[in-house]
Design goal:
Helices cover 36% and strands 17% of the residues. The relative contact order is 0.19. With 317 residues, the protein is of the alpha/beta class.
């Protein structure tokens, strides 16, 4: 009768939307209110299908590149940030640009630029191909090296071992970067980097919340997009703790077979996953078994990022 036992659901806190994601979505909504559709967005505003579809229904048009946007149109850069050449292309088309880059990503750009201006080789710890990393690469003039694994440290060709700095992708796990930074410091003892590591507070808090519950559950479900870096890291934390861990886009992806012999399940969500997807996942679990939901306690997130001036006065919809 094990299968009929009530399923204990430990709900991680904090989970889901962070301040940078809230701000990016808010920017698109307010731009639609102020200018009316269509408003063009370069790349997914955040990595979540539900968010993108909801905004598309309101008149947001998502494009991959600037040349798909008509001259002069209202254009929003996604939360991940963009390369300088994208900014230049937008100027060339005289686009009315609103930048929804997360302020914590902008902070990484500025730090990287500062090091490069001072003649440092800059090592960016991050995943090549991720929009945030591509944007950061394109914001820094000078010698930039992208690595994601400790073993790649040996292969970096540095011009002056005394002048090496590092910056990091905001959505990596603390553990991922810790080992790489330690390796870099071994090889370049005079390594410099940001005072507080650039892993954003929200990534850190969501990881700590999962670390806190993995030893008390038999299964971990992370609600989030397959291409979301921070969501993938959350799943890996469960995996590294030795429990079956799945990253699911929505409740429909939940396989009832995963619940075989499971008495307790941890549920969390990546920083770009809306809370309704979490609630739908819990409803799906409740449709399969009797469930008792135990919300966990975690740090209160009070960060609020300012809106671009041209949208600040627009009422929130």
């Amino acid at each position: 009768m094990h299968g009929q036992q009530p399923l204990k659901v430990l709900l991680a806190s904090p989970r889901g939307f962070c301040a940078g994601v809230e701000r990016a979505i808010d920017i698109v909504e307010r731009a639609l209110t102020k200018y009316g559709p269509p408003v063009y967005v370069r790349h997914e505003i955040v990595h979540n299908k539900r968010v993108v579809e909801t905004l598309r229904a309101r008149g947001a048009v998502f494009v991959e590149e600037i040349d798909e946007i008509p001259s002069g149109a209202v254009t929003i850069f996604s939360a991940h940030g963009v390369a300088r050449k994208v900014e230049t292309a937008a100027e060339g088309r005289e686009l009315d640009v609103i930048d929804a880059t997360c302020p914590l990503v902008t902070k990484v750009h500025k730090e990287g630029q500062r090091y490069a201006e001072r003649g440092y080789d800059v090592v960016l710890i991050g995943h090549r191909g991720h929009p945030e990393v591509e944007g950061t690469i394109g914001q820094i003039d000078g010698r930039l090296h992208v690595i994601s694994l400790p073993e790649e440290v040996e292969t970096v060709q540095i011009s002056d071992p005394e002048k090496v700095a590092f910056i990091t992708q905001t959505t990596l796990s603390v553990n991922d970067t810790k080992d790489v930074i330690a390796k870099l410091r071994d090889r370049f003892p005079s390594l410099v980097g940001p005072e507080t590591r650039d892993i954003c507070y929200a990534t850190q808090n969501r990881q700590m919340a999962v670390l806190d519950l993995v030893d008390r559950v038999d299964l971990l479900l992370v609600v989030g997009a397959q291409n979301s870096s921070n969501s993938n890291r959350l799943r890996e934390i469960g995996e590294n703790a030795g429990i079956p861990s799945y990253l699911i886009d929505d409740a429909d992806r939940l396989d009832p077979m995963w619940l075989e012999g499971v008495a307790s399940v941890g549920v969390t969500a990546g920083a770009s996953a809306p809370e309704d997807l979490v609630q739908e996942t819990i409803e799906r679990l409740a449709g399969l078994r009797a469930v008792s939901v135990e919300p966990q306690s975690g740090p209160e997130e009070t960060a609020l990022f300012k809106l671009p001036p041209k949208l600040a006065a627009v009422p929130k919809t």
